[in-house]
UniProtKB/TrEMBL annotation:
<dbReference type="GO" id="GO:0005764">
    <property type="term" value="C:lysosome"/>
</dbReference>
<keyword id="KW-0479">Metal-binding</keyword>
<dbReference type="InterPro" id="IPR006330">
    <property type="entry name" value="Ado/ade_deaminase"/>
</dbReference>
<feature type="domain" description="Adenosine deaminase">
    <location>
        <begin position="10"/>
        <end position="349"/>
    </location>
</feature>
<dbReference type="GO" id="GO:0009897">
    <property type="term" value="C:external side of plasma membrane"/>
</dbReference>
<dbReference type="GO" id="GO:0060169">
    <property type="term" value="P:negative regulation of adenosine receptor signaling pathway"/>
</dbReference>
<dbReference type="GO" id="GO:0009168">
    <property type="term" value="P:purine ribonucleoside monophosphate biosynthetic process"/>
</dbReference>
<dbReference type="InterPro" id="IPR001365">
    <property type="entry name" value="A_deaminase_dom"/>
</dbReference>
<protein>
    <recommendedName>
        <fullName>Adenosine deaminase</fullName>
        <ecNumber>3.5.4.4</ecNumber>
    </recommendedName>
</protein>
<dbReference type="InterPro" id="IPR006650">
    <property type="entry name" value="A/AMP_deam_AS"/>
</dbReference>
<keyword id="KW-0458">Lysosome</keyword>
<dbReference type="GO" id="GO:0004000">
    <property type="term" value="F:adenosine deaminase activity"/>
</dbReference>
<dbReference type="GO" id="GO:0043103">
    <property type="term" value="P:hypoxanthine salvage"/>
</dbReference>
<dbReference type="InterPro" id="IPR028893">
    <property type="entry name" value="A_deaminase"/>
</dbReference>
<dbReference type="GO" id="GO:0042110">
    <property type="term" value="P:T cell activation"/>
</dbReference>
<keyword id="KW-0965">Cell junction</keyword>
<dbReference type="Pfam" id="PF00962">
    <property type="entry name" value="A_deaminase"/>
</dbReference>
Amino acid sequence: MTQTPSFDKPKVELHVHLDGSFKPETILYYGRKRGIPLPANTAEELKNIIGMDKPLTLPCFLAKFNYYMPVIAGCREAIKRVAYEFVEMKAKEGVAYVEVRYSPHLLANDKVEPIPWNQAKGDISPDEVVHLVNQGLQEGERDFKVKVRSILCCMRHEPNWSPEVVELCKKYRHQTVVGIDLAGDETIVGSSLFSGHLKAYEEAVKNGIHRTVHAGEVGSAEVVQEAVDRLHTERVGHGYHTVEDEALYKRLLERNMHFEVCPWSSYLTGAWNPNTEHAVVRFKRDKANYSLNTDDPLIFKSTLETDYKMTKEKMGFTEEEFKRLNINAAKSSFLPEGEKKELLNLLYKAYGIPPAAERQP
Ligand SMILES: [Zn+2]
């Protein structure tokens, strides 16, 4: 059990979904408490049904959420608890700073159209979901000494939700929320340019809300280009297929664009074809700006160690590269400058690198 981790130093994680990180025990607990049937009776069984070991198609992957989202959504106590437990989980993984993302609408059962997961109408709005998650995260931050911020997700297939998402980012920007994301099925044709999303991202730019977009995971380089040029994204979620358009890739390298890479996820979702070189190997070679992330650890039955181990053992990643990519993750985080500097100093110290100020002549 107590194996030495592949990178035994503080880490920064920028791409992980709260609703892909619940504990099977907690899902089981609320399934029983709320009388919602689940396909298993033990945490271990449930983990194997929700989780995956081999690549699956995107629809099969997305179907897994149907099992357990109705158990947590629409329950105040459950929503707060999964946020709190998320922080505990990240503390165990040696994470110093994490940005966790979720769609407030997908956990609500009121003031959301359509009501997700076939739930009956209740009284928990997307606004209250954000409030509850914030409470859980802040209590977790205090108890587990991990710095946590959150990102609110728009969903590609629900552009009507996006204007409210950006308003919630504005409302809660000093209570953990640091950015906006666009998640969901990026193969929905033209979905980057749905007017709800475009308007939300414009509003985010206007108000200094930080922006990331899932793009180039299973979608083409064109989706990445739209994310950059039309949605003014500051980071790219996954972005593997960017390398298929050399001109775009070169432009993003010059801009020092940050790629939120999720290696184990990309294997299991089929976003990466294992018979080809993984884009992250190219990123490493080109000294690109990227991070390593878990994405949905519940479904991929993983921890951050899974991603570090995979890149270390299968792709030859070194301790030096792990330090470099974590420093880049901290620099590309959505923290305000002062807090970013604090985080960087913490990493420099742990990595045995003189702080930035001292390195200057
Ligand atoms: Zn993701």
